[in-house]
Write a sequence for this structure.
């Protein structure tokens, strides 16, 4: 089982050997934190009642979004770029389908599905959906159906122009810096 502390951080963070954190690692962690903050903020914007979609759970998950994202971070082993791509895909989905909103009932499934798509599209090495489903706490058939649905809804368009990617990454880093400085 994955061990996560109350802040949502997985153990063993920082550079190998405990020698501090490099600037690149710090920026990467800002992207991950920024993604969590952005999704949490989107959850607060949903007006009830919302239209249920295939991305909705019957009831809110018992694990927080940050703990869920920490689990993905620890287990997926994907590049930092995947976290920014995840936000791009979720944002595109909401623009194409305004009935699909990020809420307490949909955020976990949207997150796992868009992270799977990002890892498969961007990274040279990725895992099977069996592995991803286990990490995400879903049945394999359920993850497969969510992945198919998201791909169809996005029109199979997963490529992100460098400028667009840079904008999303910068926004996520900015959100994280603002949250840390406001603590």
């Amino acid at each position: 089982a994955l061990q996560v502390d109350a802040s949502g951080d997985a153990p063993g963070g920082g550079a190998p050997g405990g020698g501090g954190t490099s600037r690149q690692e710090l920026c990467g962690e800002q992207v991950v934190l920024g993604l969590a903050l952005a999704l949490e903020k989107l959850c607060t914007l949903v007006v009830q009642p919302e239209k249920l979609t295939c991305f909705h759970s019957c009831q809110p998950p018992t694990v927080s979004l940050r703990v869920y994202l920490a689990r993905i971070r620890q287990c997926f082993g994907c590049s930092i770029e995947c976290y920014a791509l995840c936000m791009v895909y979720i944002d595109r989905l909401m623009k194409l389908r305004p009935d699909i909103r990020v809420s307490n009932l949909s955020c976990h499934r949207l997150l796992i599905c868009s992270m799977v798509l990002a890892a498969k599209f961007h990274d040279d090495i990725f895992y099977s959906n069996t592995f991803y489903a286990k990490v995400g706490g879903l049945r394999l058939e359920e993850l497969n159906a969510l992945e198919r649905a998201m791909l169809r809804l996005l029109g199979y368009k997963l490529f992100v122009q460098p400028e667009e990617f840079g904008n999303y990454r910068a926004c996520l880093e900015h959100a994280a810096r603002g949250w840390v400085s406001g603590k």
About this structure: The chain is about 60% helix and 0% strand. The helical segments are 23-44, 65-76, 81-96, 107-122, 129-136, 140-153, 162-181.
